[in-house]
Records
---
Amino acid sequence: MATAANSVPHPTIVSIDPFVLATEQKGLHNRWHPDIPAYATVKPGQVFKLQCIDWTGAQIGNNDSSDDIKDVDLTKIHNLSGPIAVEGAEPGDCLVVDILDVTPFEKMPWGYTGIFELENGGGLFAREFQSRAAKAIWDFHGVYASSRHIPGVRFAGVSHPGLIGTAPSAELLATWTKRETELVDQHPGAVPAKALLPIEKGAYVGQDLPEDLRAKIYKEGARTIPGREHGGNCDIKNLSKGSRCYFPVYIKGANLSVGDLHFSQGDGEMTFCGAIEMAGIITLQTSIIRGGVEKFALKQPIFLPSPVDPLYSAKLVFEGISVDLHGDGKQYDMDATVAYKQAALNCITYLMKLGYTREQAYLLLSAAPVESHVGAIVDSPNACVTLALPLGIFENDILPREEGLVKRDFGQCAIRSDGVL
Amino acid sequence: MATAANSVPHPTIVSIDPFVLATEQKGLHNRWHPDIPAYATVKPGQVFKLQCIDWTGAQIGNNDSSDDIKDVDLTKIHNLSGPIAVEGAEPGDCLVVDILDVTPFEKMPWGYTGIFELENGGGLFAREFQSRAAKAIWDFHGVYASSRHIPGVRFAGVSHPGLIGTAPSAELLATWTKRETELVDQHPGAVPAKALLPIEKGAYVGQDLPEDLRAKIYKEGARTIPGREHGGNCDIKNLSKGSRCYFPVYIKGANLSVGDLHFSQGDGEMTFCGAIEMAGIITLQTSIIRGGVEKFALKQPIFLPSPVDPLYSAKLVFEGISVDLHGDGKQYDMDATVAYKQAALNCITYLMKLGYTREQAYLLLSAAPVESHVGAIVDSPNACVTLALPLGIFENDILPREEGLVKRDFGQCAIRSDGVL
Amino acid sequence: MATAANSVPHPTIVSIDPFVLATEQKGLHNRWHPDIPAYATVKPGQVFKLQCIDWTGAQIGNNDSSDDIKDVDLTKIHNLSGPIAVEGAEPGDCLVVDILDVTPFEKMPWGYTGIFELENGGGLFAREFQSRAAKAIWDFHGVYASSRHIPGVRFAGVSHPGLIGTAPSAELLATWTKRETELVDQHPGAVPAKALLPIEKGAYVGQDLPEDLRAKIYKEGARTIPGREHGGNCDIKNLSKGSRCYFPVYIKGANLSVGDLHFSQGDGEMTFCGAIEMAGIITLQTSIIRGGVEKFALKQPIFLPSPVDPLYSAKLVFEGISVDLHGDGKQYDMDATVAYKQAALNCITYLMKLGYTREQAYLLLSAAPVESHVGAIVDSPNACVTLALPLGIFENDILPREEGLVKRDFGQCAIRSDGVL
Amino acid sequence: MATAANSVPHPTIVSIDPFVLATEQKGLHNRWHPDIPAYATVKPGQVFKLQCIDWTGAQIGNNDSSDDIKDVDLTKIHNLSGPIAVEGAEPGDCLVVDILDVTPFEKMPWGYTGIFELENGGGLFAREFQSRAAKAIWDFHGVYASSRHIPGVRFAGVSHPGLIGTAPSAELLATWTKRETELVDQHPGAVPAKALLPIEKGAYVGQDLPEDLRAKIYKEGARTIPGREHGGNCDIKNLSKGSRCYFPVYIKGANLSVGDLHFSQGDGEMTFCGAIEMAGIITLQTSIIRGGVEKFALKQPIFLPSPVDPLYSAKLVFEGISVDLHGDGKQYDMDATVAYKQAALNCITYLMKLGYTREQAYLLLSAAPVESHVGAIVDSPNACVTLALPLGIFENDILPREEGLVKRDFGQCAIRSDGVL
Ligand SMILES: [Zn+2]
Ligand SMILES: [Zn+2]
Ligand SMILES: [Zn+2]
Ligand SMILES: [Zn+2]
Ligand SMILES: [Zn+2]
Ligand SMILES: [Zn+2]
Ligand SMILES: [Zn+2]
Ligand SMILES: [Zn+2]
């Protein structure tokens, strides 16, 4: 018969408490550095679990005010679980990582999407909207999320780690710092800064370390905001549970770290804190392909997406070109970022016709499984990008019909306690 | 019983010969201008067909040399079928267009994809590759395309009009000219030019016109390369047969024009002449939504994609960030275009490991149903874009496996008769 | 440039006129017999087209009366195009057939679905409904079909040959006749007959033949209604354009025949003449796998379905078990046919709540891309079968909602001129 | 910040221990009867969890012998969690049930598929194969299952409750007993019996009950093997997590019961214990539609399938007709069950060419997400049913190729300790 003896659960390699600040917990770190020791070592083939704190390290609460979003300390964010060394991995190998599952904690069935202010994090439209802090809390009901702050929608999650990557070598780290410093130097005084450079303030490695090593890591460690050659904070929604990813290995053991779990996200992750951010548990399995970097010409990770991503086949698609049609009408030169923004603004305007506030629409497109395709990127001077809104996530019919759109009252998302919007 | 009498075929409103140069044919035009008279008028609800010449106007042949690509006269391209007026359409209305079918001519079961040289058209990697003219001829076998110039692949077409749009008003036309002129002025001497401004040379309207009107149109008419507010050359692969598109109407009758039919295309249309370009027949049906521009906040077209696009669920995905990893390593600032290029280069390099030449890989990614998603566009300074290669289009297994990739000999695509590559 | 000289259309091997009765045309036949000579021979790899008359051989008209359905001569049906010999095919080989395209004639953009009376053909519910002849004419608008006889729906076609197969050997033919005769003998006087046995009346081979050969074929030739080991009238909607099928070869040349083209069909093809029947053109390509019957253990065809079948992901699913809940409540023993019928009846009843007549609902489920799955077939005594109605084919929302279903007036389908229903 | 106080987990209404025999636990029952009291009551809208024991009630172990399968006591099976009353539900209402999630216990990451012997349970091919007990243990790795007993495959689960339904009224229960008794009476001495009638032996209700009530329930309670009007053991794989089901309500409170959780299952559930059977947790939410039985003409449940079912678009499809081609060649009359069996046997034979044993193939088709469609059910005398094998679940290419199939050694599944097969 079935017994506990013949039922072996998958081991948890990193355990955290999602209700305790990251900086008080073991097995977390928030910088990239080759000298951060492996927190644990796994064998190829072994299935294991890592518990992950949410990307802010528990700074955000399940409530109806966005003050916590306004006050997030961004020097402390992206507390990753790991590093996890894989036995036998060597530089030049390819580390194959099966992302077997990504789930919230049973005791914490909620997540959030936030709009950050221009001065603290920003977001795609921080300048255009002069965004003030706002947020939506999402309740998790099994495979679905819905929000009291954005009524009228419910969708299945395409759950994934926003951030997963191998540790950089010293050379790679130096390259990152050099090129990002150059960018910052080209834009003195930019708000927000064009890149966040290494800074000791807020740095954290939840391990016992010699002080000089700790100081070195804190001083040199790369910040975690951008995705880079090793993966990192790529925020690719389709690198979801069920996918298999191939990472370059830069140091002995590979030293994989992961965090920033998302219950769901739209292509683009518009608001910056745009996914449904959550604390949770990721289940992984690894293997090593000797010399895989050369075998597969890996300059960056490649992956096989999951067979279980949500399928919403009916969509309404918005086009965008690289002309600032929602702003001053300026013509840009084959700029896919501008084109993406126009498609998004076209969609936001449409959602506002349905009764959503601008903030609700902005949050919704960040969090729901919208798809954004690069349409064409060669028809000078206009790149064309599309954004596809899945119809099946709405309770009501939102199609463009003869009689126009029905405007409903959906209230407002969570805003600042001082009422400033 | 079934009789010819009770079987009424859908009428063909524009008839062309795909083997005759565009400039010798009626019902075609290659500039956008509000004063081009409607070539024909249809009633809302009527199903009708337009025959379309290929985008070069028959300049390209089914042969094994790319000399014709090298010598394309780009002042004469994008010969559109129309304009077709829709009875009752007024400025501010929304013109609903059902793209019911897009097929090649039965007598011309082939198309082509071309790489243009930097000095004549260019393409996404024209500078990086210092591209010389090259091409692939694709044979159409029912729903599939395959090419003697790119062996080892076969795929179902996601057939669509690369170019479809309503006529601009005089005001809109003036706006286009102004903004594009400003861009050109900011980049004097750029090769290729940042935008193609109105030019009389090569202009064509295949109708009897008063000479002064013809002169006005030729002088002022907008060039057709970029997509704009009215649709135009958006080259969106999913605006395919079976989709329904909602266009803003700018002038009485709407004056719809369409051309540049594609048997297939990948997201991005990389090589510029990157789709499988074909002559063919498009079947349309229209309706009008009074005041639709206001009702749906239409600054650009929106559409419902088709239920019959090819479904290749298994994919290999390549990531790209806005760092020029394949070039000088420069850090760009949240530039999705750079990120797209990196993802594409990662994929091209992978395909070369399989034995394809760089030119074959470049052509294949342009023509096959690859999907490119904007992953994240908020993680400063790195935009992240993905490019997904459908595994089902390959005859052989191309997965990254322990033993590495099998390199096969696929020959080469069509190149210049002087052998320059 | 593009020229007629470098554009070679795929050859048409069988040409027919869809407006002329089958029995006046060449290249058609309506019996299975090994001695029917090949009408033409193709080489492996060659792409070719066969024109096909509709399954009744032009007996049905595009009008608003079902009298023609009532009077169909079923001894003359299933006039197939062929046989086509494939050079080199030998018994025991596997004939690989790529179904590259299936389209209606441009000059005949319509098809029909019919309900046959119990005494002439019958249908799944012929007895339960005491069906009188009825029909729906479907208009083809590119990839879509819609019907003036069943308003409120429009769907993309999953176009396929209802009937395709290789010629039987003499032994196989004898087996068929023997086993079907035994079945008929077990049910003397059944209406409709349990199987249609060989009969000279109505037999047809549109070739010049020696009289004794013709007589032999007419006397012995198997009727075409059921699918059998060689394929035949399987009416599998997913054996659609874009699919690849592997047939057993029984005689030298394989002698492939095809007909009974369907623009669309639901799983089950409920009304018997349940697909959208059409005349049209099929494009094929073949290859031979030597000894494939043994290599793949082929007792019947196997196939790879198409990547371009319509994708309607949102569905409403009806369950059925092997108890006659819509009739006398009888308990059947693990009978999937009964279970399928119950699921279908549950769906028909639901559609009637929306305002469709029973005949319209019956025709719609036969013709639209509904999916029927065998749920479970082991839970004695109840087989469970499901039938899934795609929501995207309806103009209006048909979901079960709090407020109940909205009943609309959809008129009625075409019925008999004497008004009998 | 995130706190336990603002994080409210969904309540667990039925708690069980998967390692303790069902008959020692509360909140379980294994008969259908209107008088079984509700074990708990929920409000409409409330999200709640039910823990479920596996269908045998912990009789099967994670080991390499099938002796436990051989010895299962079938009088004790299908121990359901519940009944759960829903506040306000009345006969004639429709109970809407959202199946929000279905997961295994974290401490029991495995399940099993079993072949039962003819004398104890049987299965689709119990007679044809003269099956001896066999089983496969499946390990759960996040969204995937794989088995040491069936190497070479891995697939994502389409997880669902095999059994879910509302309680019957006394009248409905009487109807069931009457019709099933009649069937048994028509087949005296059948092995296995045509239906399992009420029997006191093995009956169980895990609640404190008055003895006379318990006796009544045990004596009259319907067995749980077949699905019926109320749902029950329908074993529909697509009634999976993320689906919404509409049940008829027969008694006050509706009294919903659920169990027999499946990690995955193929259409048909061939071996009888054919799914990947597991203990686990189901998350539900309900609502009530007043008078829904009449509103939606509900004779049986209807449902909206989930957007997160696994998508394996590439398939190899096997056909089957109602002729016993794998047996004595007998012609059946439009029998979809026979047709399903032939398709399944064709597929099993194919899998054996790849090296799987008959038992492995039989188990695999039962457990993997194979799709079985009713092709056509009107072409007398042959029903046609297809079975589609997803290619993406295999580690290696299994396509029919020129060179034939590669036969590998996959060992054998778990068999009886006496070695009898
Ligand atoms: Zn992130
Ligand atoms: Zn995040
Ligand atoms: Zn174009
Ligand atoms: Zn083009
Ligand atoms: Zn048929
Ligand atoms: Zn037919
Ligand atoms: Zn079950
Ligand atoms: Zn079960």
---
Amino acid sequence: MRNASVIGLGMTKFGKNEASLKSLAISACKEALIDAGNPKVDAIYVGNFLGGQLAGQEIIGSILAKELGLGPIPATKTEGACASGGIAFRQAYHMVAAGIYDTVLVAGVEKMTHASTNLVTQAINSAMDNDSNEGISGLTFPGFFGVVANRYMYEYGAKEEHLAMVAVKNREYAMHNPKAQFQKETSIDEIMHARPITSPLGLFHCSPITDGAAAVVITAGNTGVKVLASGQASGPPLMQDIPDLLSIEAIQESARQAYEEAGLGPDDIDVVELHDCFAMTEILAIEDLGLFEKGTGWKAVEQGLTKHGGKVPVNTSGGLLSRGHPIGATGISQIVQIVSQLRRTAVNQVEGVRIGLAQNLGGTGAFSTVHIFEGSGV
Amino acid sequence: MRNASVIGLGMTKFGKNEASLKSLAISACKEALIDAGNPKVDAIYVGNFLGGQLAGQEIIGSILAKELGLGPIPATKTEGACASGGIAFRQAYHMVAAGIYDTVLVAGVEKMTHASTNLVTQAINSAMDNDSNEGISGLTFPGFFGVVANRYMYEYGAKEEHLAMVAVKNREYAMHNPKAQFQKETSIDEIMHARPITSPLGLFHCSPITDGAAAVVITAGNTGVKVLASGQASGPPLMQDIPDLLSIEAIQESARQAYEEAGLGPDDIDVVELHDCFAMTEILAIEDLGLFEKGTGWKAVEQGLTKHGGKVPVNTSGGLLSRGHPIGATGISQIVQIVSQLRRTAVNQVEGVRIGLAQNLGGTGAFSTVHIFEGSGV
């Protein structure tokens, strides 16, 4: 396996966007290709989850190859619910590292805001095992993570304020990110009195419905931000099969793989983007990534250890909660932010960062990917 | 890159099946794992196209990992319309050849017959570029290949009888395949007087709506039927962008790659499964694969060169036309048949075969994969 690095970044503004699925993806891809110096591209991978259900559009890989003028190159869409983008990146990275392709374009895209909330909720539930009883019983994702949050507070002594602290932190980061969906200032008080979604989760604790696309270019060698490791794991797709509701096995296992491959541990990570689909999920993820002990994540949040000046700034882009969550694009947009941090050109730049980590979750723990990157350390 | 070979095969009966998407996939996977001797599996890839739209079910990769008891292994769905299966196989093969995984399970699955024909037709049209004018103008896949057939007959002198000869051949093969959707005998006369779909294509010239799943196990080394080469290409997803309606660029390019990688040419191929989504497509494909000169495929069919005793038997499983076309499963079921041929255990076994080829198409030429396999030559 040879080295591979990220040499191009592109991303649309996230939020409500009148552009089509295809147009969003083209915008992000063009920006990434220009940023990479318009290299010859050998293949394209696209992370997308709901193109068929919400936009009546599949074959997005082939469409992009044609529209971008890349010739008859192989094009592949990958799906793993909300981890579709991270999985696309992993495939592309391995194909470059293995020498099958020299340079690959990886895009993530989703178009959601044109559909009704009911339709979106129904489509997102295709990320549960609907042949068993979850979909039939009416469980939704906010429902699942609401249960988890209640149990977490009961077990470990966290309070609703700690969920709000995650949401405030990510909003404060998003306020400085012109590509984030939400830039309006908020407060603990506003968050705690916002419209309830599933107790204890309110409106600000849940990632929004978003349109958007992100893209990166990976190439062989060390000319960009180096990919140190790629981890991917699966976990139980059914709530009743999860042995411990307060740990996400797929995050732990994908992180274990990535740390091992990189020869690094959690203490070596300088900056993180992780999958805060709900405020609760961020607290679980900082624990499952090994950044903080199980059951202490809420204390780390309280002490400011997950922001600038703390142990490891988390979701400096604003995270899914405030940057937005165009599902297929999310995993790629996380990598855009981490690579920007390691290039020292990010919004909410963290000083002196050299090693960054991006973690992307799918379903209620059905998939997780972890990628670790190394900047030049300039 | 190290050698990799196919050591396990599984397939449900194709046709109308009351089982769910998940159950179909599990059946095929279990059969393939048993056939492979229940090896430790490092990852799973699944080709699926319409799970979200027709069954409200995505995350099928993770569901299979859980249901099959494979542990927290990486699981990935790939999509490239009707080439979703071929693309899944290609990813899996390269990950084994590159040494990322030692043994990978590859499944393809689709559940279609429970939905109305209108809904299925609409869902299949997500394999066109609907942001441009094709979907909007109401073009369907039978419409496209009907236009192609008319033009082919005009240019090269083929007659409707030649389309019927393809359909009869594939039905005759399917009559001996207990897993095929259609086993009832037919005749040129019945085919030519069947219900018209899009002139000149009638009912027997169009692949059916089908439920089914297929699976294979790939492992490092030479213990099974060896994978010699993998080609994948894209082509214009819009009819008006296709320079020559009578050639499918993605088939030509994917074949070119595969022949080059294998160090073989079309004359070295002993048996072929190809993507006869319509009778016309089989004639184009035998030409675009280089098995016969452009414009002469219909003569080859007339002379019996694509069946037992001819130059190269094509679609000995019955093909999409009569084996059936559960979209995501098709590419894998083609490989099941080719590997069976090279194991000398196939339905409609061809004598003395050593090299086989499987070609899987997506859209109106948006994707094609070509895989070449080598048996032990016993």
